[in-house]
From TrEMBL:
Belongs to the cation transport ATPase (P-type) (TC 3.A.3) family. Type IB subfamily. The chain holds residues 432 to 721 of 795 of the full protein. Signal peptide: none annotated. It comes from the Bacteria. This is Copper-translocating P-type ATPase.
């Protein structure tokens, strides 16, 4: 590799808000077979909003939201942020015995009652039946919503459907990568139904759903073991090991410090299209070297 071409390439990247921390990344980006995108905060805006509250029989919306918000006070997850935003102005009862289950949800004691907020896995693991809300839960997930199931005293009292809009350039990013001959995957801790719907909307080739935070790096390794050079794009703390494991890690500039530290390339404008530009730039740079 001629150092001059790489230097020019790195400089061109920087001028476009693509910070290449490791010059070797420019050469590795040429060989990428698959690029995996984290879902929340990377392909989506990462600003989820409560879109719908579905109370169970005998409950009303306000009770479901207040109960959920009471317990989500203990969490920093983006779902907690959305629920607390919706509960603004409501008096929230204090909570004790708070516990968070990574990739699943939260539990606490509120007014002497055990309350859960989380995905279906969390409900199943605690023997909580979804009762008459089971079908609604599946339907909302099939429509691309993330569903928080709110349970109290061992039964689900309501569902909270949360929507997080895709970034405006997400679809174009995916189409252009595919046009370059690169396969596109999406990875998420979210439910399979939700992920498949969003994957279909965006034209994703491979949907990796219900992946626990600690297992993201293993998924990268799996694709590498199948003979692929793998790029990973992420923003979150739990994307860091996967960014490190990948052949080229891309961090969203607006993401967490840990993600930025773990990536070889930083997308300063937080635009996924800059992944395409980085790969095009690396191809152009390599052509100049031969
Ligand atoms: P992601 O960042 O892709 O949403 P996570 O691993 O953080 O993945 O979470 C996976 C799933 O666990 C979420 O989609 C949600 O259903 C559930 N979950 C996690 N934390 C919470 C929480 N504080 N409240 C409700 N549900 C939660
Ligand atoms: Mg994320």
């Amino acid at each position: 590799a001629t150092p001059m071409a790489v230097m020019v390439g790195t400089g061109l990247g920087a001028a476009h808000g693509i910070l290449i921390k490791d010059a070797a990344a420019l050469e590795d980006a040429v060989k990428l077979d698959v690029v995996i995108f984290d879902k929340t905060g990377t392909l989506t805006m990462g600003q989820p909003k409560v879109e719908q509250v579905v109370p169970g029989p005998g409950f009303d919306e306000a009770t479901v939201i207040a109960t959920a918000a009471a317990i989500e006070q203990g969490s920093e997850h983006h779902i907690a942020v959305a629920v607390l935003e919706r509960a603004k102005g409501l008096a929230l009862p204090p909570l004790t015995d708070f516990a968070a289950f990574e990739g699943k949800g939260v539990r606490a004691v509120v007014d002497g009652r055990t309350v859960y907020s989380g995905n279906r896995m969390l409900m199943e693991e605690n023997g909580i039946d979804l009762g008459p809300l089971a079908a609604r839960s599946v339907e909302l997930q099939g429509a691309g919503r993330t569903v928080a199931h709110i349970a109290q005293d061992g039964r689900v009292i309501g569902l909270i459907a949360i929507a997080d809009a895709p970034r405006p350039t997400a679809r174009e990013t995916i189409e252009r990568l595919q046009a370059l001959g690169v396969k596109v995957a999406m990875i998420t801790g979210d439910n399979l139904g939700t992920a498949q719907r969003i994957g279909r909307e965006l034209g994703i080739d491979i949907v990796l759903a219900e992946v626990l935070p600690g297992d993201k790096a293993a998924k990268v390794k799996e694709l590498q073991a199948q003979g692929n050079k793998v790029g990973m794009v992420g923003d979150g703390v739990n994307d860091a090991p996967a960014l490190t494991q990948s052949d080229v890690g891309f961090a969203i500039g607006a993401g967490t410090d840990v993600a930025i530290e773990s990536a070889k390339v930083v997308l300063m404008r937080s635009d996924t299209l800059d992944v395409v530009k980085a790969i095009e730039l690396s191809r152009a740079t390599l052509r100049k070297m031969h």
